[in-house]
Amino acid sequence: MVSARGGVSLPALGLGTWKMGEKRGQRQAEVAALQYGLDLGLGLIDTAEMYASGGAEQIVGEAIRGRRDEVYLVSKVLPNNASREGTIKAAERSLRRLNCDHIDLYLLHWSSSHPLADTLEAFERLIGDGKIGRYGVSNYDIVEMADAMATSGGEAICVNQILYNPAQRAIEDELLPWCSAQDIALMAYSPLDQGSILQDTVLKQIADSHGVTAAMVAVAWTLRFPNMVSIPKATAPAHIEAAAAAREVLLTDDDLTAIDHAFPPPQPGARLAIY
C-alpha cells in the first residue's frame, strides 16, 4: 500500500483502462481482464470520462458489479468540464456509467482554463455528498503543483497521476522529490511506455537474470519509490499475471545502474511529457 497526505492509503499496483471500451467486440475480454486483475489482487482500477467517451467507465462498471468493496476506484474529470457545476455533473455521469455510488479518488485530468478554486470547491462538495472519497490532479508539473497547493482546497490534493517509465523520467528532476516531501503520492501511467521499451536489450537481460519478463522489470522499476503507484494496462491473461507478479521482483543496485545507462536520468529542467 502507498500512503499519502490526509491519511490516504491506496494499492501500489492496479490496472489502467485507457483505450478500453473503444471496440464493441473486445468488451467481454476487457471486462474479464479487470475481473482477473481483481482475482490476482490488483485492487486499484483507473479510468476517466475521456476514455472512449465514457465507454471505459462502462467496462469498469460491468467488471466491478458485485465486487465494489474489492476496488479502489479512480476516475477523472475532463478540464473542459471542470467548472464548479460542471465537475459535479461530470462526476454524477461517471457514477452512472460505473454503476456505483462513489469514486474513491477523483482527479482533474490535466490543468484547466476553469479556475482551479472552482474545481476544488466542487470536489469538496462531492466529498460532502459522499460521491467521492478523495481528490487529486493528473499531468501537473511542479509549478502547477505548487500553485494548486496554494489554492483554497489545494491542501487536500493527495495524488498526482503522471507519465512515468524508464524512457520518460522527467519527474525525477524536481517533481518526484517535491511530491514526496509534500506527502503526495504519484501514480505512474504507461509504465511500459505503450510497449515501446519491451524489446530493449538491457531490460530483457535483467529480466532473464531474474527469470521474469521485461514488462515485469519495467513495472517493478516504477515501484521502487515508496510514494509511487503503478497502473499498467493489460487485457491478455498472461500480461495481467505478469503485472501482478511484478510486486515480487526485487531489482538489485546493479540492475538499476544498468537501466540508468540504457535510459539516462533527466537533465535539469526536463519537461514532463503527456500521453
The secondary-structure element order is: EEEHEHEHEHEHEHEHHEHH
Q: Count of DSSP E strands?
A: 10
Largest sheet: 8 strands, parallel
Spatial strand arrangement across the major sheet: 3-4-5-6-7-8-9-10
Radius of gyration: 18 Å
Q: Any idea what the CATH superfamily is called? A: NADP-dependent oxidoreductase domain
What general outline do the C-alpha atoms trace?
globular
Runs with pLDDT <50, length 5+? Answer: none
Mean pLDDT score, rounded? 97
Plain-language structure description:
The chain is α/β, with parallel strands linked by helices. The chain has a single domain, classed as TIM Barrel. 37% of the residues lie in helices and 17% in strands. It has ten helices and ten strands. It has helices spanning 27-39, 55-63, 84-98, 116-128, 142-149, 175-181, 201-210, 214-222, 237-245, 253-262, and strands at residues 2-4, 8-10, 14-16, 44-46, 72-77, 103-108, 132-138, 157-163, 185-189, 228-231. The strands form two sheets. The chain has an eight-stranded parallel beta sheet with strand order 3-4-5-6-7-8-9-10, with helices on one face. A two-stranded antiparallel ribbon has the order 1-2. The chain is globular and about 55 Å long. The two termini are 26 Å apart. The model has no long low-confidence stretch (mean pLDDT 97).
